[in-house]
Model the fold of this input.
Amino acid sequence: MPELLDAELAFSPSFMGRFSNHLAMALVALHQLGAPPAVLRSVFDAHAAGDPELRDDWDVLETRLHEVARDGIVATVRARVPELVTHPASQLFHPVIRLGYALDVGHEGQVAAALLDWERRRHVLAAPDTTPGSRRLPDVAADLARRSPGSWEHSFDLDSISRHPDLRAALTGVALDEHTLDDVSSFAIAAHTAADDFITLHLVTGARAIRTVSEWVDDDTARRLVAHTVPAMAIAYAAAGAPQLLSPDAVDAVRRSSLPTREQIAERAISDRDPHVIKLANVALVEETRTGDPLYRYSAARVVGLVSRG
Done:
C-alpha cells in the first residue's frame, strides 16, 4: 500500500472546486478492513482512469514533504496542527479525516498532504464561543430538536446555521472537560443511528479523526481542537435537520438486536466502491473495538446493506 499512497500524491485533494478526493482515505480504510493488495490496486487504477484532477501545488507540497522527512511526523503535526484547530469541520471534516488516516499508517507524504489540504481549504465557521458549563452535547441536541418543525431544514450551508441565534443559545453552558472528547464520539454515533444521513455519517468519521489527531498533539492543542469540535458537531447536526435522537429504550433495542459478524461487514464493505460506505464501515468497526458499543456495528451493518434501513 505505501507505493499507492505515494502515487496518490499526484492527484488534487479536491475536484470541481468543492468536492473532496477520497482515494487516500479509502485506500487506508480498505487496508484496515483487510482488503487484499489486488483490491487496493483496482481502486487506485479505477480512480486514475477516471480523468482525476491533478495536483496544482507540487512546489508547496514538496516543501512540506521535506519538512516531514527532516523533522518527523510527530514534530510536524505538533508544529502545524495548532494553527488549524479553529476549523475542524472544514470541507465537512474531510481534511482532518484524511490526516487521521495518514497518521494511522504513518505515511509521511500523506501526513504532509493532509496538513496542507486542511490549511488550504480551511473554512472557519462563525461558531459562537461556548460558555463552559455542565450541559453535554445530547442536551444541545435536545434543545435544537425542540425548535418548531422546519426550523432546521437539511442544508449544506453550515455558515448560515452557525449564525442562527437558536444555535448560539443551545451551546450556552456546554461542558468542556476531560469527558468532552468521549461526548463528541458518543454524540456522533447517536446522531447517525437516529438520522442515517450523509451529514451525520461525517460526524462519525470526523469524530474518529479528531480522536486520532488529539493523540498526536500536546495536551493544550488537543483541548483546543476538541473545544472547537463541539460547536462544529452541533452545527452539522442542525444542518442534518436536527433529528430527534432515539429514546434510551430504542437505543437499548438496537444494542440488543442480532447483528452480522464483523467479518461479514468487512467483506461487504471491501466489495463496495463507495468511499463513504467503506470509511463508515471501517471507522464503526474500529470504534466498536475501542468502546464495545453495538451501535457502531449496527451502523456499519446498515451502511453495507446487511441491516435494513429505517
Remarks:
- The mean pLDDT is 94.
- The chain has three domains: 2-120, 137-239, 248-303.
- The chain is about 65% helix and 0% strand.
